[in-house]
Specification:
This protein is mostly beta strands and about 725 residues long. It is about 5% helix and about 40% strand. The chain contains three helices and 59 strands. About 50% of the residues are buried.
Length: about 725
C-alpha cells in the first residue's frame, strides 16, 4: 500500500500541475496556489513516519531525500535532537519561501548536531529558503572545516532570498591558523571557510551570486574561525589588491542586498562579522563580545573588503584579543563608499579602527562618523600601508583611560593618506600618553578637541580645542556617559560638514547649516548629575559646636578648639574660621581609603602659611595619612595617600577662596584645583577605618601644623567623581 507520505506528496504535485494548466484560461481570474506541505520531523521517534505531526519523519537522511516546493515547510520537534547534516533540496519562491523551523510546546530548541560532518545545515544552490528557530552545533578538533550553517552557491547563476533567523549556533570547531601545521593566515576564511554562518560562492564555470540574503536575530557563540562570513570566488577586478589574485577564480560578481542585523556573537575564534565581495550590504544592531580569541592570526571585529556600498551602524564590538589586528572595526582593501556610523567600540586590545588598503586595493570614499570608542588599546586608527582617497573621519568621541596610551593614527607607509579628521573628541585620563605616527600632508586635522593630548605629538591642526570637554561621566561604560554638559567648549564648536548623515549617535538631529558640536553627541548641553555624598558639610551655621552633615548620613562633625562661625563671606554663604593653633573638626569614620573609590572636595581660604605643611584633611589611626595639605614652601596642594607625596602644579594663594579635590579611582589618585585636573599618580592606598580631621594633623608638630584660614562646602563621596562633576562643584559656588 502506498504510504500516506507519498500520497500527500503526489496530491501536492498534482495541485501544482493543475494550477499551471489553468493559468492560460482567459477569465481574468487567477487560481489560488496551494499553501504547501508541512513535513514534521522528530529524530527521537521510534520509527520512520510519513511526515505528519502524528507520524513524523525521524532522520535527516529522509528529510534530505525530499524535493521541496514553494510554500513547503520542514518542522523539527522542539526538544528533540538530530545527528548529521541537514541538506534540503528544492526552491521556494519570493511569495512562498520554503521554511525550515520547529514545532511543539517544549521550551528547548530543536537541535541538529553535525556529529563529525562539516555542516549542521547546508543550503546548496537554493533560493527562497528560510531556516529559523533551531539549535545548531558542529564539534571537531579544529583541523577540518566546520560550519553551523553553510549557504553555498556553486556554478548555479543567480540565487535569491536566503533568510537565517533566530538560530542558536554554538561549539563550531573549524580549522584556523593556530590549529594547522602550516599556520597559513587564510585557514578558515576565504574559500571553504569555517564558522557559525558561512555564505560563500565557489566554482568558476557559471557566474554565481546571492541576492537578498538576510541573517538576523541569531545567537552565535564559541565558534571557529568566523562568526558570520560572506565570500565569493568571483572577486577579480582591476582595483583588487594583488595578494587576493590567487584567491579569485573569475571576474567580480558581488552578492547584493545582504542584511546582517540583530545578532549576538561571542567567543569567536577569528573575525566577528565580515561580508566580502558585496555591493550593497547593511550590517546593523549586532553585538559582538570576544573575537580573535584563538586564531593567532589577523582578525577584526566587523569589517569588509573588496566591496562597495556597505554600511555598518548601531553595532557594538568589544573584547578583541591581541594586536594582530584586534580592532573593533575595519575598512579594508579594494573598497569604496563604506560607512561606519553610530557604532560603539570598547576594550579591544588591537584598537578602534583598522584602515587596510593594500597595493592596487585602495580604500576610497569611506566615512567614519558618530561612533564612540572607550578604552580601545594599541591604535585608535591604523593604516596598513596602501593608498587612501577621500576618507572622512568626523564627529567621533574617543576616551582612553588610565594606563592606556594608544597611537591616535599609525601610518605604516609613504602612500597617500587623504583623510579629513574633523570634529572628533579625544579625551585622555590617567597615565599613558596619546600620540601620533603620521607625516602625510594630505591628512588634515581641523576642529577637534584634544584633551590631554601632548602638543608635541599632534600634527599641525587648525581650530583645536585643548580644554576639558565636560563629558557627563568620562570613564563610564555607558555611551550616555559621553554626552556633553552645560558649558562644554565642544558645544557648537565644530566645522559644518555637508551630507552629514542628519543625526548623531544618540538620535539627535544634526543641522546642515549651523556649526555642530564636536564629538558624537549633537544635543544641548546637559545638566551635570551628582551622586549623593557620604557626608556633606556646608559649614554655614551661625552657632553651635557641631558641623552638621546635610547628606542624610548622620556623620555630624564635632568642633574642637573653638572655631568661629562666619555668617557671610564664604565660598557659598557662610564659612568656618580656624585659628591654626588648636582648631579643627573631628569627623566620624566615613570610609576606608583602601576599600574603593572616593572623592573629597572643599573650599579653603588660607590666612597665612606656617610650618612645613598645613593640614587640610587628615585621617586618624596608625595608617591614617594626610589626604590633603598645603606645602608651605611651594604653596602647592599635596596628598600623602599611598605613603608618597604628590604635589600639584598650581598653588593655593593666601586671602582667596580656592576649590580643591582629591579623587581616588582604582590605583590612580588625582588632585584638582579650581575645577581643573592638576596632578595624578599611581598609588596603593593604606587600609585604615578610623575617623578624620578637617584642619589638623592627627599628631600636630611644628612642621605639620593646623590649617589657619577658612573652610567651606566640604563633601566626601564614596565614588570617583568625573572631571565634569568637579567643574560643577566649582562653578556652583558662583565665585568665578
Amino acid at each position: 500500500m502506498m504510504s500516506q507520505f507519498f500520497i500527500n506528496r503526489f496530491t501536492f504535485l498534482f495541485r501544482l500541475v493543475l494550477a499551471a494548466l489553468l493559468v492560460w484560461i482567459p477569465t481574468g481570474i487567477q487560481p489560488a496556489l496551494a499553501a504547501g506541505t508541512s513535513y514534521y520531523v522528530d529524530c527521537s521517534a521510534n520509527g520512520e513516519g510519513n511526515g505528519t505531526s502524528s507520524s513524523p519523519i525521524n532522520s535527516l537522511n529522509a528529510v534530505n531525500a525530499l524535493t521541496l516546493s514553494p510554500g513547503d515547510s520542514v518542522l523539527f520537534k522542539r526538544g528533540s535532537s538530530c545527528s548529521g547534516s541537514l541538506s534540503p533540496q528544492g526552491n521556494g519562491s519570493a511569495s512562498q519561501p520554503i521554511v525550515i523551523g520547529s514545532y511543539g510546546t517544549s521550551s528547548a530548541r530543536s537541535r541538529i548536531d553535525a556529529s563529525g560532518q562539516e555542516d549542521a545545515v547546508k543550503l546548496r544552490n537554493l533560493s527562497y529558503v528560510t531556516v529559523q528557530d533551531l539549535e545548531l552545533t558542529a564539534s571537531g578538533d579544529n583541523t577540518l572545516a566546520r560550519r553551523g550553517v553553510h549557504v553555498l552557491g556553486q556554478d548555479a547563476g543567480e540565487l535569491y532570498g536566503i533568510r537565517l533567523n533566530n538560530l542558536y549556533i554554538h561549539d563550531v570547531r573549524g580549522y584556523m591558523p593556530s590549529t594547522v601545521p602550516s599556520r597559513y593566515h587564510g585557514t578558515g576564511k576565504y574559500a571553504n571557510a569555517s564558522g557559525g554562518i558561512v555564505v560563500e560562492v565557489l566554482g568558476s564555470s557559471v557566474p554565481t551570486a546571492f541576492h537578498g540574503v538576510t541573517i538576523e536575530n541569531n545567537i552565535i557563540t564559541a565558534v571557529d574561525r568566523q562568526g558570520i562570513y560572506v565570500w565569493s570566488n568571483y572577486c577579480q577586478r582591476a582595483e583588487l589588491a594583488e595578494f587576493w589574485g590567487s584567491l579569485c577564480t573569475s571576474n567580480w560578481k558581488p552578492a547584493t542586498d545582504v542584511t546582517i542585523q540583530n545578532n549576538i556573537l561571542s567567543d569567536v575564534g577569528g573575525d566577528g562579522i565580515a561580508p566580502m565581495t558585496v555591493d550593497g550590504s547593511l550590517v546593523q544592531n549586532n553585538k559582538l563580545s570576544g573575537f580573535n580569541v584563538r586564531s593567532q592570526s589577523p582578525n577584526a571585529g566587523m569589517w569588509t573588503a573588496n566591496a562597495n556600498h556597505v554600511t555598518f551602524q548601531y553595532n557594538e564590538a568589544s573584547g578583541g584579543k591581541t594586536t594582530s589586528d584586534g580592532m573593533g572595526f575595519d575598512v579594508d582593501h579594494s573598497t569604496s563608499n563604506v560607512i561606519f556610523q553610530y557604532n560603539y567600540s570598547h576594550e579591544n586590545e588591537g584598537g578602534f579602527f583598522l584602515l587596510c588598503p593594500q597595493g592596487k586595493g585602495k580604500s576610497v570614499d569611506f566615512i567614519i562618523r558618530y561612533n564612540v570608542s572607550v578604552n580601545d588599546r594599541a591604535r585608535l586608527f591604523q593604516s596598513c600601508g596602501g593608498e587612501i582617497r577621500n576618507g572622512q573621519i568626523y564627529n567621533n568621541t574617543i576616551y582612553s583611560g588610565d594606563t592606556i596610551g594608544p597611537v591616535i593614527y599609525q601610518e605604516s607607509s609613504a602612500q597617500t593618506q587623504a583623510i579629513q579628521f574633523r570634529n572628533n573628541l579625544l579625551y585622555k585620563e590617567g597615565s599613558g600618553n596619546l600620540s601620533w605616527t603620521l607625516n602625510d600632508t594630505t591628512f588634515t586635522v581641523d576642529h577637534n578637541v584634544f584633551f590631554r593630548v601632548p602638543d608635541s605629538t599632534t600634527p599641525a591642526g587648525t581650530n583645536t580645542i585643548t580644554s576639558d570637554p565636560l563629558l557627563v561621566h568620562a570613564g563610564g561604560l555607558a555611551t550616555t556617559d559621553y554626552k556633553l554638559t552645560e558649558g562644554s567648549p565642544a558645544l557648537g564648536a565644530g566645522a559644518i560638514i555637508s551630507a552629514n548623515g542628519g543625526r548623531d549617535y544618540f538620535g539627535n538631529a544634526v543641522s546642515a547649516s549651523s556649526p555642530p558640536n564636536i564629538g558624537a553627541y549633537q544635543g544641548a548641553g546637559l545638566s551635570v548629575p551628582l551622586p549623593v555624598p557620604l557626608a556633606s558639610y556646608h559649614l554655614d551655621a551661625t552657632s553651635g559646636a557641631s558641623a552638621t552633615d546635610s547628606s542624610g548620613g548622620s556623620y555630624n562633625g564635632t568642633l574642637i578648639g573653638g572655631p568661629v562661625w562666619n555668617a557671610s563671606g564664604g565660598a557659598s554663604a557662610g564659612f568656618l574660621q580656624l585659628d591654626g593653633v588648636d582648631d579643627y573638626i573631628l569627623l566620624p569614620p566615613l570610609l576606608n581609603p583602601a576599600s574603593g573609590d572616593f572623592t573629597i572636595t572643599g573650599w579653603v581660604k588660607l590666612g597665612a602659611g606656617a610650618g612645613s605643611s598645613q593640614i587640610i584633611v587628615q585621617q586618624e589611626g596608625s595608617s591614617g595619612r594626610s589626604l590633603l595639605y598645603r606645602d608651605t614652601a611651594s604653596g602647592k596642594l599635596g596628598t600623602y595617600l599611598g605613603n608618597a607625596a604628590l604635589l600639584s602644579s598650581a598653588t593655593i594663594p593666601t586671602g582667596a577662596w580656592t576649590h580643591i579635590a582629591l579623587i581616588k579611582k582604582g590605583t590612580t589618585i588625582s588632585l584638582y584645583i579650581n575645577g581643573q585636573p592638576d596632578a595624578s599618580a599611581s598609588r596603593t592606598a593604606e587600609s585604615e577605618s578610623s575617623g578624620f580631621r578637617l584642619g589638623s594633623h592627627k599628631s600636630p608638630t611644628s612642621s605639620n601644623v593646623n590649617f589657619r584660614g577658612g573652610l567651606d562646602e566640604f563633601r566626601i563621596y564614596g565614588s570617583a567623581l568625573s572631571s565634569t562633576q568637579i567643574v560643577k562643584l566649582y562653578n556652583d559656588a558662583g565665585l568665578q
